[in-house]
Amino acid sequence: TMKKLFYLFAVLFISATTLMAQPSKGNQKTNYTPETRAMMRLDRLSQTVTLSEKERSEVLALFTQQEEQRAKQKAEQESKREAAKKASSEERQKNNAELKSIIGEEKFTAYETACKEKHKASKECSNNKKGPNRK
Questions:
Q1: What is the mean pLDDT of each successive set of 10 residues along the chain, which is 135 residues long?
Q2: How far apart, in Å, are the Cα atoms of 129 and each of 87, 88, 133?
Q3: Model confidence over 76-91: pLDDT tens digits?
Q4: Could you give the C-alpha distances from 97 to 105, 126, 131, in angstroms and in order?
Q5: Going by C-beta distance under 8 Å and a sequence separation of 6 or more, which residues neighbour residue 22?
Q6: Sequential DSSP letters for 30-67
Q7: pTM, full prediction
Q8: Which of 12, 46, 68, 115 could form a disulfide with 34 if both were Cys (CB 3.0 to 4.6 A apart)?
């Protein structure tokens, strides 16, 4: 009975993931759960080699663990990226305030307007690391 229950669960899980999977449109990334990604990896592996039920369950556990770790690392990287963006923005604001205090409001406004015209897509032209094609 335990074996039948496991088969039933596996069939239901595969059916659910198949129904949820829809083709992506354009460049949109599909954000699958780690469990779904693990199941997709297992399905790709199963198409290449034949696995016993024991191997399938062990591989699924391994893939799920790996995908959860990958999701955790991705979240940490995104957090670090957001913190770096915030620090960079604060630094730019500080630098602009210092420049404004030296050259005055009127000249700073003229400078800012010239920057916006020169680099329409850029938010900040005084940062030499950014070019017109970088974001």
A1: 82 78 60 92 94 94 95 93 93 92 92 84 50 47
A2: 15, 12, 11
A3: 999 999 999 999 999 9
A4: 10, 12, 22
A5: 30
A6: P---HHHHHHHHHHHHHHHS---HHHHHHHHHHHHHHH
A7: 0.49
A8: 68
